[in-house]
Amino acid sequence: MTQETTLDSAPEAVAEQLSPAHKSLVINVLLVSTFVVMLNETAMVVAIPSLMTALGVDANAAQWLTAAFLTRPHLLAADGRLRHNPRRRSWSGPAR
Question: 23 falls in which pLDDT band (50, 70, 90)?
Fold first, then answer.
């Protein structure tokens, strides 16, 4: 059996295998990702009045549209994780 890091490995064991350059890269990617998420949320807040006018909806509907838009990436990440779980039997299609 080969030494292979799996998704079920303890985070500490995975962190020990990373070089300082890789750890720095992970931190930088997380920082940039957080900035992009904040920028996206700010753009959506600014766009709400324009969305209300363009779509002809009230503030309550615009709030729901914004919440759905901002929640979408989290659902995509969860779906990707569930689809690539090698132990699952089925989840909306065959395992890849």
Answer: confident
Q: In total, how many domains does the chain have?
A: 1
CA 50 → CA 8, 25, 42, 89, distances in Å?
45, 38, 14, 45
- 65 found inside a domain: yes
0.70 exceeded by pTM: no
Q: Tens digits of per-residue pLDDT, 38-92?
A: 898 888 888 889 989 998 999 999 888 888 887 877 777 777 667 766 665 555 5
3-state secondary structure of 55: helix
CB atoms within 10 A of CB 62: 19
* ∠ Cα 81 26 39 (to 5°): 80
Does residue 29 lie in a domain region?
yes
Q: Tell me the residue range of the domain where 73 lies.
A: 19-83
